[in-house]
Amino acid sequence: MAEREQLLATLRERIVAYATFRLGRDNAEDLAQEVLLLLETKYPQVVKLEEMLPLAFQIIRFKISDFRRKAARRGEYDAVTVDALPLAGSGNVLADLERRELRLRLLEAVRHLDGRCREIFRMKLEGRSYAEIQAKLGASNVNTVYTWDHRCRQQLMVRLGVGERIV
Amino acid sequence: MTPEVIRKLLAGYATGTLSESERAELFQAVMKDQALFDALADEEGLRELLADSEMRGELMAALDEPAQTLSDTPADEEASRELRPDSEMRGALQSTLHESRQRSAPNWRRWYAFMGVTATLGLVAAFFLTRPTPGPKIAQVAQLSRMEAGPPEALQMRELAEENKVKREEARRAPATRPAARPPAQPAAPPPEPAQASAPVVVARQAADALAEATPGRVSLAFRSAASSYKVEQRDPAGAWKTVEALRADVETRIVIQFPAAGLVTATADGREIARVAVETRDPVSLAVPSAAGLLTVTVNQASSGFTLQIPLRFLKP
After folding, report:
1. ipTM of the complex
2. Using the beta-carbon criterion (under 8 Å), do A130 and B48 form an inter-chain contact?
3. Does residue A116 sit in the same domain as residue A150?
4. Which of A96, A90, A30 minimizes the C-alpha distance to A64?
5. Does the distance separating the beta carbons of B45 and A102 come in below 8 Å?
6. Which of the four pLDDT bands, split at 50, 70 and 90, describes residue B161?
7. Option in B16, B35, B47 nearest A167 (CB)
8. Which CATH number characterizes residue A108's domain?
9. How many angstroms separate the CA atoms of A71 and A27, rounded?
10. Do A64 and A15 sit in the same domain of this protein?
């Protein structure tokens, strides 16, 4: 349990830093609190980082989306209750719109990928691992595939209009 | 794995390409690196989209299509067509420009109209600002009824004025007479004291009923006129009247006053009446002043106003 506590504390720091840039300091604190509360109350069985982090990202995404929707509607930020939090498959109109927009941009971006990137992306969509891709493309080692894919991702992000956030 | 390699694993997160060990490496790094955390959090939308099998199918179909070049998209095609210098495009461009000019013309007309209205308003404002403003209106506080029937004082004024006129005409016709005995010159007279000619003190009189009703403006004007038109003279050894700087007590003295309006003049020297004459407009009145008189008071009663001159006199000690 101590390991989980430590994990949640670190996660809180990361969430606050992430949301401060996007929502402001006070809202970031609230957001981190709500994410941790949800993890604590609804997902107490999640202990491993590999499980907790994707779950946290999902909650963060929905919380931010909800924040923006409510802020746009009422001009203020209202805390979302845990029970009212709509997770995947909700009827959130704004999220649906975002999803549709991203889908169209992704389709358009994929059509402009060059030869090797198209091939790598296709194999990734087929569910192949990097090791399989390496073997398929005849790369000397997997790090080469990482580099190729990293460059392809940069192309894709530029096409999606999120090039400034490429790491 | 080096941090640089771990950073490259981001590309495989959204598509679910990472193996268990790669995911673990990435997540461990994410918890230490805020930039990596932010990038992964921003990737959540894409990951969710790619998790949808239907979307994956659409993307696979899109990847099966031949790769699009810059001119393949409708927007790019349109842009490249605009760059072609064919006559059709030139004509279309010209018509577009013409429409644009036509659209902008009413805006210019509106702008000119606005400028015109502004200029007109400015001119009107300038006219009103530079126009000489009329003086303050004098509010009527009381109505003064003019005396129709001549009161005893008015009758007396008229009689005295007539008498003065006759006397002046007689004096003009008669040869000038000099006083027989002239006071001998005083050879060893002490040097006269410096003159202390102070400005006459003018005090409004409000005793009479009629004067009490007079407007201050008129009284003030009469005061100013009277104060500037009197002179104190003394007869010199040759017998001529001259204005002197220092009055001598042993020399005949008179005061000549020119009044701005007709009225009854009463003059007192140190409280003792020395003259009571009726004057007409612009008529200079000459009054004999007793020697060594200290304060000469000249009161003028007019039909609707009046004033009093208080003239302090300072005679040299003999």
Report:
1. 0.79
2. no
3. yes
4. A30
5. yes
6. low
7. B35
8. 1.10.10
9. 11
10. yes
Q: How many domains does chain A have?
A: 2
Alpha-carbon distance of B40 to B27, in angstroms, equals 9
Domain that holds residue A126: 93-165
Boundary-marking domain end, from A30, A45, A74: A74
The answer as to whether A79 is a domain residue is: no
The residue ranking higher by pLDDT, B77 or B181, is B77
Instruction: Write the residue in B12, B38, B62 that is nearest to A124 by C-beta.
Output: B12
Residues A60 and A106 in one domain: no
- Is A147 among the domain residues? yes
pTM above 0.80, yes or no: no
Which residue type is seen at B75?
Answer: A
Q: Which residues of A touch B46 (CB under 8 A)?
A: 102, 106, 160
Inter-chain touch A150–B24, beta carbons under 8 Å: no
Rounded to an integer, what distance in angstroms lies between the CA atom of residue A38 and that of residue B119? 68
User: Looking at CA atoms only, how far is residue B81 from chain A in angstroms?
Assistant: 20
The verdict on A108 and A59 lying in the same domain is no
Is the domain of A100 the same as that of A147?
A: yes
Provide the 10 A C-beta neighbour count for residue B9.
25
The verdict on a CB contact (< 8 Å) between B31 and A14 is yes
Question: What value does the mean pLDDT take over residues B250-254?
Answer: 85
Phi, psi (degrees; rounded to nearest 5) at B23: -60, -45
Calculate the dihedral angle through the C-alpha atoms of B79, B82, B85, B91, rounding to the nearest 10 degrees.
Answer: 180
Place of tokens 């420009």: B97
Element (H or E) spanning B235, and its range? Answer: strand B230-235
Q: In chain B, whose CA is at the least distance from the CA of A102?
A: B46
Q: Measure in Å the smallest separation between the Cα of B76 and chain A Cα atoms.
A: 13
Q: What is the sign of the dihedral through the CA atoms of A143, A146, A151 and A152?
A: positive
Is there a contact between A165 and B60 if contact means CB atoms under 8 Å apart?
no
Last residue of some domain: A45, A74, A103? Answer: A74
**Is residue A88 in some structural domain?**
no
Q: Is residue A81 part of a domain?
A: no
Same domain for A125 and A158: yes
**pLDDT in the model for residue B211:** 36
User: Looking at the structure, do residues A57 and A9 belong to the same domain, yes or no?
Assistant: yes
pLDDT in tens, A49-98: 888 999 999 999 888 888 877 776 765 555 555 556 656 555 566 677 77
Which positions in chain A touch B67 (Cβ < 8 Å)?
A: 111-115, 118
